[in-house]
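Supplementary Text 2. Reproducibility record for the structural model of the 189-residue chain.

All settings were left at their defaults, and a single model was retained for analysis rather than an ensemble. We include the record here because the model underlies the residue-level annotations in Supplementary Table 4.
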Amino acid sequence: MPKLITHSWKNHKVSPDEPTIPDPVVMIKDDGHILIIADADTDADGSPDAKEIDATGQIETSLRRKKDGTGWQGEGDYVNARVIPYYVIPGNWKEVTGIDVKMGDLAKLSYKDRFVYAICADVGGDKYIGEASIAAIEALGGNPWGKGKKKIISGLDYGVTYEIVAGSASLNTTLNFETIQAYGRTLFG
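Retained model, structure tokens:
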């Protein structure tokens, strides 16, 4: 029987067109997969120009290349939000759920009639849930950009499903968009 996780996480942005948007849903499915239904704010972290395109953008992501050769195995020291589909977990995730989602764990993100496989690459604040990279938002059919693609202005409304497989990180396999999609197809069958 699925287990519902109750916590006060909120969607980051409430659409003015939908003032009665539901709270995020977090549950553990019978197969052990984590299911989150929330919105998806756009995260620019890891992009070389993150500070210019996003008011809260950072050059760094939580998943990074380490001196000992572990961690991020793809191009660059951090995971580039423009080219790598990734999702973000809240900073208090393990404390609240008791489940350790590691950097690199794979998820299937779905919105309306589209889906993309993504890796966990960043940790956010404790109040909100539902955030994904520029590449993930675009793959799901969203347009996060203002005029001229100079600033991130939006994400996706409530209804994004994140199906996370805890313990699925394969950082020596998930190096770029294509290899993440191939690993996702294998993992999700």
